[in-house]
């Protein structure tokens, strides 16, 4: 079994769910430990052969804890087999769904200097009924600006087939 760490930075749980799905997909030959970025200080990367790093975007940014971890652990991470992915709503657009054209992913790489063996961008999920009035207003406004109208119900943008394909790629690393 290949010792694998899946470290996630997630506010509403979608990035965690994507990590869980990847973990489930590769469990026949990978022993996956799932950890929230907030508990990352207790993690010894030396114990793992492969590392999955996933972070979501809120108001244009990945969480600082996620970025700091990537910066601080860059040298050690470069000795592992890695998958780095970002989860955001912008990735629902066909011209912003790749690591090479998703603005948040490009910014993350530029800011942290990280390079991963596999890089991916996944469209996330919105469920505005669970968000504050302010957040609901802001998200609706942002969507309106790109000519789309959304309600408070759950909108699943994540392509789980894409998640599975990336998981297979990671499994074969
Ligand atoms: C308050 C709020 C702000 C968000 N800001 C952005 C944003 O700036 N750009 C973007 O592409 N997606 C944005 N999103 C969409 C999230 O990235 C998406 O919902 C993702 O699934 C969240 O992942 P998480 O549940 O792991 O935190 C935002 C969502 C919320 C609720």
From TrEMBL:
Residues 7-148 form the Flavodoxin domain. Keywords: Oxidoreductase. GO terms for molecular function: oxidoreductase activity. Its EC number is 1.3.5.3. InterPro entries: Flavodoxin_dom, Flavoprotein-like_sf, Protoporphyrinogen_IX_DH. Coiled coil: none annotated. It holds the Pfam family Flavodoxin_5. Transmembrane segments: none annotated. The keyword Transcription regulation does not apply. This is Menaquinone-dependent protoporphyrinogen IX dehydrogenase. It comes from Marinomonas ostreistagni. The lineage of its organism: Bacteria, Pseudomonadati, Pseudomonadota, Gammaproteobacteria, Oceanospirillales.
